[in-house]
Amino acid sequence: MTTRIPKAQILTSNGDSCTLKFMELQQVSMIDEALTSLGEFGEVRLIVEKGKLRFLVTQKSFDALKWQPGEMSG
To answer: In terms of residue numbers, what domain contains 38?
Structure first.
């Protein structure tokens, strides 16, 4: 007898629930954390290998017109 593990479900902004088909809930949290860390500018790329999310790449950008000394190290 095999035990079925239920797929993770998330709540959408309008209150509906949605079953995750591709990612695990932990991966969604990782993406959310990456987006939060970018600040005003940046991008997040998801690298998929063999049908599985394998890497998350972040790139943080800075507005050259608004740059202040020491801003990039923080």
So the answer is: 9-60
3 state DSSP class of 54: strand
What's the confidence (pLDDT) of residue 55?
Answer: 96
Residue 20: count other Cβ atoms within 10 Å of its Cβ: 13
Quote the number of domains for the chain: 1
| 3-state class (DSSP) for residue 15 | coil
Specify which residues 48 forms β-bridges with: 53
* Span 27-74, pLDDT tens digits: 999 999 999 988 788 999 999 999 899 999 999 888 889 888 887 775
55 three-state secondary structure: strand
